[in-house]
Amino acid sequence: MERAPSPFERPEWFALLAESGIRPFIALAEDSEAKAALALTRTNGRLEPLRNWYSFTWRQLAPEGSRAERLLAGLARDLRRQAHRVTLWPVPDEDGSATRLERAFREAGWLVTREQCDHNHVLEVNGRTFAEYWASRPGRMRTTLKRKAKKVEVTIRERFDAADWEAYEAIYAESWKPEEGTPDLLRRFAEAEGEAGRIRLAVARHEGEPVAAQFWTVENGTAYIHKLAHLESRRELSAGTTLTAALFEHVIDRDGVALVDFGTGNDGYKADWMEIVRPRFRLDCLDPMQPRAWPALAKRFARRLAPATGRG
């Protein structure tokens, strides 16, 4: 069985989303040699990706090759009988996904706009040790770690630990992070990742008090940074920096990953740790043959005309 390219394309992930209340709409096509699928849901009067805010990415579930391309185009054509609008995001293109989907929907008769909707910060390890990587970080980060690392004790677990997860939830609740709608889903995901040995659950403690926590996973040579939080009330400890550095050392030197993925978002601190920024795209597909699509198409054309009509 072919391995999923990320945690967010496994059947177990889609099942968790369904359990959280998101109703799946799976479009599937196959022939004697290939299969292609789009994991979608009906919402906001259109078809959208089967995902939530924990998902780093979304893409087609299809192998490479001309047969799969024909199946994707066939799926896109069939979806015109299901919806007047299909909006897909956040789609990567370093693997050609955004280009493949845009081409498939255009060939099927949809009018497609493609625009960048997010950023993805990553680190390509390129065979470096943690020490070699760390030597290239900004001097203020290296100075902070040297001064503050001894102020906290760090534990990193490769199996789910209920006490450490409760510590993470307590820290998150008091951190700068916004409240989330389905924390139970994240816990179930963490438990499953722990059972599979993919979890990296880390907590930093100061004099026995948990002050920072992070939830990573590792698979297929990639470390995924899912969640991180620290107590604002103990910010002077710089426990988040110490904990992140410890996890980078763990996944680089012990797990031997080739890539570290910091998910979506263009927060300034991510650039301190990462070296590459990859775009994430939104594809908005409208069927011009359906009257329900005409108001949105009119707005789209009006936006395109505005810069031209505004020039004197």
TrEMBL record:
GO molecular function: acyltransferase activity, transferring groups other than amino-acyl groups
Keyword tags: Transferase
Domain N-acetyltransferase: 154-288
Pfam family name, one: Acetyltransf_6
Domain of life: Bacteria
Name of the molecule in the record: GNAT family N-acetyltransferase
UniProt source species: Pelagerythrobacter rhizovicinus
